[in-house]
Description:
By secondary structure, the protein is α+β, with helices and mostly antiparallel strands. Helices cover 69% and strands 7% of the residues. It contains 14 helices and six strands. Strands 5-4-3-6 form a four-stranded mixed beta sheet, with helices on both faces. The termini are far apart.
Amino acid sequence: MPYLSLDLQYFSQEKTEKATPKKRQESRKKGQVAKSGDVNTAIILLIIFLFLWMIGPYMFDIMLKIYRVSFQDFIHYEITIDNIQQVMSALSLEAVMAVAPILLVAMVAGVAANYLQVGFLFTTEPLLMKLERINPLKGFKRIYSLRAIVELLKSILKISLVGLVTFFVLWIHREKIIQLSYATVEQALLIIGKLAIQMGLAASALLIFLAVLDFMYQKFDFEKNIRMSKQDIKDEHKKSEGDPLIKSRIKEKQRQMAMQRMMQEVPKADVVITNPTHYAIALKYDDSQMDAPIVVAKGLDYVALKIREIAKHNEIATVENRPLARSLYEQAEIGDMVPETLFKAVAEVLAYVYRLKKRV
């Protein structure tokens, strides 16, 4: 028997169940989401090289302008502090004009890549200072773990494949590369620029494919890490349902909803029987659909007052009958038919109400 209890305890603690929505929400607040860094890298590279391909002539003109001004104008300047500041300011401005659009596109691509993976997520939890992060033992485990080995193999694979793709692009254009020694500077820059963009686009396309596979692996690994045991699910359920504050709020909300539904039925009643101040019971009777009158609302004190006010506002007849009101309140619930022992008394009240309606 002790072995059996230990086995049951082991299986209850084994993480075999999918994470609950609450566990997922808590993990998300801590910044723990299924995310692949390769997706960010691949998308940023692809967008940047596409952008370079589109603004290639603009970049080429800026580079020629820098070379032309440097060798035609700046070379004749005297070496003084003012002249050096002027030259550096002019070159810095041109460099900013060339680099700023690329940096802006890279930033937008990085934000878009993150949004595609995890949506909008802002949390400071990963930035909090935790002593366990500087624990040498845990650091050693992270470095020499199965996950680290997988990441190393992934990196080797990516480098090898990217190297093969770029070599393939260069091999296709080997004749142009050989002729670079006979080309002018302008022609050489154009050829090198086109080759660089082609290699970048080819490598980016390959990285996109690998990033999709890596994202699927990261999602699988994330789901595995946030799995819960049966005991964890039970504890979470007890914690959420067993909180007295939550229970009281749930009961209060249910009471309010029930009260609201009950008050909505009062205008449909035929008569309200009162005590006259402490009890109020609303009855409805339709001889074509009901075998006996039905209690649609009842209440004490404040609730009884609300029932009388709604009845008065909707011109529902109110009849004072203390013994009948008390008996109906004690013997019938909302939605129940009037007890058989009270049929005669209720019939007299309804007959009285119908006579009043005919007179009106």
